[in-house]
Amino acid sequence: MAIMQRVFGAVRTEEEDHWLTVSDLMAGLMVVFLFIAITYIMQARKEAQFSEEVKAWRKNHDKIYEALNQEFSEDLDEWDAEIEESTLIIRFKNPNVLFRQNETNLSNHFKKILADFCPRYLDVLIDFRKSIQEVRIEGHTSSEWNAAVDSDTAYFKNMELSQGRTRTVLQYCLNLDFTEQPWLKQWAHTTMTANGLSSSRLIKNQAGREDKIKSRRVEFRVQAQTIIEILDALEN
Fold first, then answer.
1. What total number of domains does the chain contain?
2. Taken in order 12, 18, 22, 28, is the CA torsion positive or negative?
3. Contact, 107 vs 216, CB < 8 A?
4. Cβ–Cβ < 8 Å for 102, 54
5. Under 8 Å CB-to-CB from 161, ≥6 apart: which residues?
6. Interstrand relation of 132-140 and 192-196 (parallel, antiparallel or unpaired)
7. Please, what are the averages of pLDDT over each run of 10 residues along the chain (236 residues)?
8. Fewest CB within a 10 Å sphere: which of 60, 73, 213, 235?
9. Is the residue at 128 inside a domain?
10. Is the pTM of this model over 0.90?
11. Which long-range contacts (CB under 8 A, 24 or more apart) does 29-37 make?
């Protein structure tokens, strides 16, 4: 047998073929298990990172609200305004204070409010500029126009009106005297936008009917980093 092996080479038995196949299988399974383990660890790390990002987002959101509330809490009643904690919206609620009906020119009273509000508002928010994408001035109207037009025409008429009003507000804010704080105006130029939303976001009463008075309003909204954007950042 030894002579035959020297002449013809090693002879593989069925048992050796069997153990060779099992060892290959075990090696393959180890690679699969290793891949699963690595995937699990990476997913666990991503979930942990996401959890920390969400906590940071919530904490930052709360800090912005607290800063705004601390700055303006004593002025809100006088301005007939409110701060909405969940959205960081500052809402000016009295349409009679803001504009005359169907006009885009600011009332003198609203000019006085904005002259006090805008520089202080920007001064608060600039401390959070790294997490703020946009500061939106949003104009809202009721759904009515006049009886001579249909609902679609009324919607676009109100869209034009609300856009004109928010542009007027933005222009007035940016034309205020920022001589002592020029960086606020520079930041506002890159961050503040005017957005007319017509009657797309009506305020309704408890009966579910449109409150035409409350629907006519101007809002300043902080557009901060969102959960969706945090997810996108983690995926990339």
1. 1
2. positive
3. no
4. no
5. 102, 104, 139, 141, 196, 198
6. parallel
7. 47 51 69 75 64 71 94 96 94 91 92 97 94 93 87 93 96 94 94 95 92 93 68 52
8. 235
9. yes
10. no
11. none
Spatial separation of the C-alpha atoms in residues 40 and 232, rounded to whole Å: 20
Give the distance from CA 173 to its chain's centroid. Answer: 23
Bridge partner list, 222: 135
β partners of residue 210: 204
Residue 34 domain flag = no
Phi, psi of 91 (to 5 degrees): -110, 125
Amino acid code (one letter) for 90 = I
Q: What is the CATH number of the domain that holds 81?
A: 3.30.1330.60
| Residue 226, C-beta contacts closer than 8 angstroms, at least 6 positions apart | none
Cβ 165 vs Cβ 139: under 8 Å: yes
3-class DSSP state of 218: strand
List C-alpha distances in Å: 133 to 45, 188, 236.
27, 11, 19
| Strands of the sheet with 81-84, listed across from one edge | 81-84, 89-92, 217-224, 132-140, 192-196
As a whole number of angstroms, the distance between CA 151 and CA 148 comes to 10
* Per-residue burial over 67-97, b = 16 or more CB atoms within 10 Å of its CB, e = otherwise: ebeebbeeebeebebebeeeebbbbbbbbeb
Find the domain containing 195 and state its range: 68-235
